[in-house]
Amino acid sequence: MKVLVIGAGQMGAGIAQVAAQAGYAVRLYDVEQRFLDRGLAAMRKSLDRDVEKGRKSADERDAVLRAVEPTTVLEAWDADLAIEAATENLAVKLDLFRKLDELLPRPAILASNTSSISITVLGAATSRPERVIGMHFMNPVPVMKLVEIIRGIATSEQTYGVVRGAALEMGKTTVEVSDYPGFVANRILLPMLNEAVYALYEGVAGVEDIDTVMRLGLNHPMGALQLADFIGLDTCLAIMEVLHAGLGDDKYRPCPLLKKMVAAGWHGKKSGKGFYVYDESGTTPNPEIAR
Predict the structure, then answer these.
(1) In the predicted structure, residue 225 carries a pLDDT above the cut 80
(2) pTM (two decimals)
(3) Is the pLDDT of residue 1 over 80?
């Protein structure tokens, strides 16, 4: 199978890695070489860790890296499966799906790693809605086992079968999900994270105290605010806005503090600042919002 991955960010690079590990020929596309370089460096770091822990040999690591062809040119290719992992923005995704529909052969399946946007809407932008599907990986992709597979209203049984089989070959466990805002994972997770932001916004507790409650009181491996930073506060906001608009319930209203932080460019770990500050000295609560 030939797999085209669109976007070399944290998710796209991880998807390219697990696809290459499954023995697929992978082409990884992004708009600038620096994004590709960053994605490939993250992939090598992940694979080096596997070698250090004895999960892979150095030869296996090198074979995975060779199987991934980076490119800044989105062009015709005889891909069997395209997996879009671009930013969580409907306009960007619609533009990409229209381009992929024009460039890829008719039998190719167009999948999206979207965490909240309607697969039906993406499919309707193409001439092949029956071959459009959601393939939502969890982060970090090489480690997390789950893939949500989302059928749009027109997605065919054959498309579902091919994508589920590919996910299984990538070593994932799949769940079938209907096409509703946020699907399952983010419909449950993001309101919880948003509520943690509200607790901070309303002065219920400080950043570290809220996260300590989540870790030690609820036995979560990571505090809610730190997890939001790792996901990306811009992504969290985008998903909450999709939930709010799509379900029409004010319980999904994004916290004003979340909106303000995104407007300030504080997107979490990837920008160096969110609820925590990430720098050479380590991870510390952001003094501009923590109390």
Answers:
(1) yes
(2) 0.89
(3) yes
Span 12-36, pLDDT tens digits: 999 999 999 999 999 999 999 999 9
CB 81 within 8 A of CB 108: yes
Given the residues 46, 112, 186, 194, select the one marked as catalytic: 186
Start-to-end C-alpha separation, the chain: 53
Q: Is 115 a catalytic residue?
A: yes
Active-site annotation holder among 118, 136, 194, 267: 136
Give the model confidence (pLDDT) of 50-91 as tens digits: 999 999 999 999 999 999 999 999 999 999 999 999 999 999
How far apart (Å, rounded) are the C-alpha atoms in residues 14 and 8? 8
Instruction: Report the distance separating Cα 181 and Cα 234, nearest Å.
Output: 17
Contact 212, 186 (CB under 8 A): no
Say which residues have a Cβ less than 8 Å from residue 212's Cβ, sequence separation at least 6: 223
- The whole-number pLDDT of residue 290 equals 53
Q: For the chain, which domains are there?
A: 2-178 (3.40.50.720), 190-285 (1.10.1040.10)
The answer to whether the beta carbons of residues 134 and 179 sit under 8 Å apart is yes
DSSP 185-215: HHHHHHHHHHHHHHHHHTTSS-HHHHHHIII
Q: Which residues contact 118 (CB under 8 A, 6 or more apart)?
A: 152, 179, 181, 246
Cα–Cα distance for residue pair 118/226, rounded to 1 Å: 27
pLDDT at position 135, please?
A: 98
CA distances from 52 to 47, 49, 170 (A): 9, 5, 21
Is 194 a catalytic site residue? no
Q: Tell me: the pLDDT tens digits for 110-142?
A: 999 998 999 999 999 999 999 999 999 999 999
Q: Hunting for tokens 């697929």 — which residue is that?
A: 24
Active-site residue among 115, 116, 118, 194? 115
Residue 3, strand partner residues: 26, 81
Catalytic site residue from 84, 88, 112, 148: 148
